[in-house]
Amino acid sequence: MNSNYKIGILGGGQLGKMLTLAAQNWDVETHILDVSKDFPAGNSCTHFIEGDFKNYKDVLKFGKDKDVITVEIESVNTEALMELQLQGKIIHPRPEALNLIKDKGLQKNFYQINNLPTSSFVFYENEKDIAAAIKKGDLKYPFVQKARTGGYDGRGVAVIKSEKDISKILPVASVVEPLVDIQKELSVVVARNESGEVKTFPVVEMEFNPSLNLVEYLICPAAVSEEVAKKSEEIAIATIEAFDICGLLAVELFLTKDNEILINEVAPRPHNSGHHSIDACVTSQYQQHLRAIMNLPLGDTSIQMPSVMVNLLGADGYTGDAVYENFDKCMAVAGAKFHLYGKKITKPFRKMGHATVVDSDIVKAKEKAKYIMDTLKICTK
After folding, report:
1. Which is nearest to 63 in space by CA: 21, 95, 23?
2. In the β-sheet with 68-71, what is the strand arrangement from edge to edge?
3. At 29, is the secondary structure helix, strand, or coil?
4. For all residues of the chain together, what is the average pLDDT?
5. Closest by CA position to 176, among listed 163, 187, 160, 162
6. pTM recorded for the entire structure
7. E strand or H helix at 286
8. Residue 280 in contact with residue 305, Cβ under 8 Å?
9. Which domains occur in the chain, in start order?
10. 30-75: per-residue pLDDT in tens?
């Protein structure tokens, strides 16, 4: 590795920030492309280039002099990445995989073609087609509608349990799946480098806010049997190898009431379900992603301490300059580690940071995490 090794990252949000922080201990340059240096990664990267990662010319120009290019968000201009790849640039994850993953319809087809376990599904072009299918009896309640493109952080998903929920149906091309009867939602973050080395992080359990469709608690390790943990990791490995991805892949899973494990969806980048690894694992997901895209040996993913992570969201009813009320009280919680993303403006339910509580007793860790969630109020002046 040269001392002026350049990593290009498309996206300057919190994931980009944490990637640049992980790289700061190494003799590498991190370059971010996004529309404003005021974004979270603006103060932590080596160089911030203001531009649009969805724009062909901006991405092409940005990638010309980078040793490796990666992403912190899927909705980037893959045509420019294809051209850079033809020019001999190293792109991880490869743009062909990005094209599959950022369309949830293509994603579901991919699982079916590659014999990867997932729930049944049907495609609809718009809300009228869904309404017609309900009327004909071809589509039965309850079901989940997912926008094929553009969904993020709970947006682009509608849970339709009965006729009362019809107004929630989204007017977009979508994938519709039966509402799976689950006992737990799990996630496995898996890494792979160009040499073919693959490592998984321990399985985590996700508890979602039912109305926001956002992760409320992330529990590591998940309270599942060794058999379920092993099978989940095997599915994650099979999935990253099928996509032929180098870097990270977060594989979100459903554990059904019948103990079947199904792939919900994936993300080819650092992920909310891996944030805890910064404080709880030997190697963080961010350092692991860098190791993987640079084709370095992958790090030890062992848990150093059980943990519970909680997302820190903007309080409902507040938009403006962020104020963190009761932060001092929360800082007094033993084992609590805080990561504020540096977003200047808070909005209702916007992800403003996360806190990870490490404790040898997972029950105590969750109690502390709940205290933080209930006590810290992100509002305005």
Report:
1. 95
2. 47-50, 28-34, 5-10, 68-71
3. strand
4. 96
5. 160
6. 0.95
7. helix 285-293
8. yes
9. 5-91 (3.40.50.20), 120-178 (3.30.1490.20), 182-380 (3.30.470.20)
10. 999 999 999 999 999 999 999 999 999 999 999 999 999 999 999 9
Q: What is the rounded distance in angstroms from the CA atom of residue 187 to the CA atom of residue 205?
A: 7
Angle at 21 between CA 102 and CA 248, to 5 degrees: 35
- pLDDT given at position 215: 83
Cα–Cα distances in Å, from 74 out to 53, 147, 271? 10, 14, 12
Q: Count of CB atoms within 10 A of residue 145's CB?
A: 22
User: For residues 46 and 4, what is the distance between their CA atoms, to the nearest angstrom?
Assistant: 11
HSE-CB for 254 with a 13 A CA cutoff: 17
Task: Give the integer Cα–Cα distance in Å for 48 and 148.
Answer: 31
Residue-wise pLDDT tens digits, 168-221: 999 999 999 999 999 999 999 999 999 999 999 999 999 988 777 778 899 999
Strands (E), 74-173: 122-124, 143-147, 157-160
